[in-house]
Amino acid sequence: MAALAPLPPLPPQFKSIQHHLRTAQEHDKRDPVVAYYCRLYAMQTGMKIDSKTPDCRKFLSKLMDQLEALKKQLGDNEAITQEIVGSAHLENYALKMFLYADNEDRAGRFHKNMIKSFYTASLLIDVITVFGELTDENVKHRKYARWKATYIHNCLKNGETPQAGPVGIEEDNDVEENEDAGATSLPTQPPQPSSSAYDPSSMPSSSFTGIQIPPGAHAPANTPAEVPHSTGVASNTIQPTPQTVPAIDPALFSTVSQGDIRLTPEDFARAQKYCKYAGSALQYEDVSTAVQNLQKALKLLTTGRE
After folding, report:
1. Tens digit of each residue's pLDDT (9 = 90 or more) over 259-268
2. pLDDT in tens, 84-142
3. What's the CATH number where 127 sits?
4. Are 33 and 53 in the same domain?
5. 28 falls within a domain
6. Which residue intervals of the chain are DSSP H helices?
7. pTM of the prediction?
8. Which of 22, 49, 81 is a domain's end point?
9. What distance in Å separates the CA atoms of residue 118 and residue 102, rounded to the nearest whole number?
10. Which residue range forms the structural domain that includes residue 277?
11. Distance (Å, rounded) from C-alpha 21 to C-alpha 43?
12. Nearest CA-CA partner of 49 in 60, 35, 38, 61
């Protein structure tokens, strides 16, 4: 992908989007779709903050040039041309990053890469708002990820041992953005893959663990966004984990849409979104998540309910 023209210095008014722009730069080669939507979020947010001050207008103009250049380079990529595909791509990417960090946290493996993954996941959930309002689940994941990044960063900085898992967060307290945690650089060596499987059944109940994670479908030890391309890690170092496919409700096979069920455009959009999520999950060979989302789509289309 051709290099983008550099941006002018960031105006002080746009401090709140600096980490989203940094995330965009980090993903220019790793995942251009993620990079595009990070810049789009920064553009939309910047316009709301200040679009009149000369420095801000100049910055937003250059950022718009970058967006146009990216759009041309990505051409007919469905994640750019079709909003629902882009939303599914971004949400799935953020979830994988969140699960990787959460997996490391629950196993008591605290390191810079995990902190950065938590924080970046929270930033990417911000970016999902370019498609509309966040779900309650995503709001909780964003708050939890940002709190975890700050908490673990501060513990390690002070020589303390963090508590693993969702312990100690107070839901009423907003998490302040920690620039040090967000700017944590990647370690020179990627974390070593864990040979132990992640057992979701051992997860304590918490309002922040609403993600449905089937057994064996734990996030890879090295997420695509966090491993430098030159790591030299052999593809056979990570042993595949057998996946447990969730039981399929037999009633779904015999369910026929009733004549009095009227699906709204929103119902069709949600069903299509579930199908896109399933397709995205299959890209990661995550059969369980694909099956779960296809069942949701089928139930919605045949009953009008989720």
Report:
1. 567 878 777 7
2. 999 999 999 999 999 999 999 999 999 999 999 999 999 999 999 999 999 999 999 99
3. 1.25.40.270
4. yes
5. yes
6. 18-26, 32-49, 54-74, 78-81, 83-106, 112-127, 136-157, 179-182, 251-254, 265-283, 287-303
7. 0.62
8. 81
9. 8
10. 265-303
11. 10
12. 60
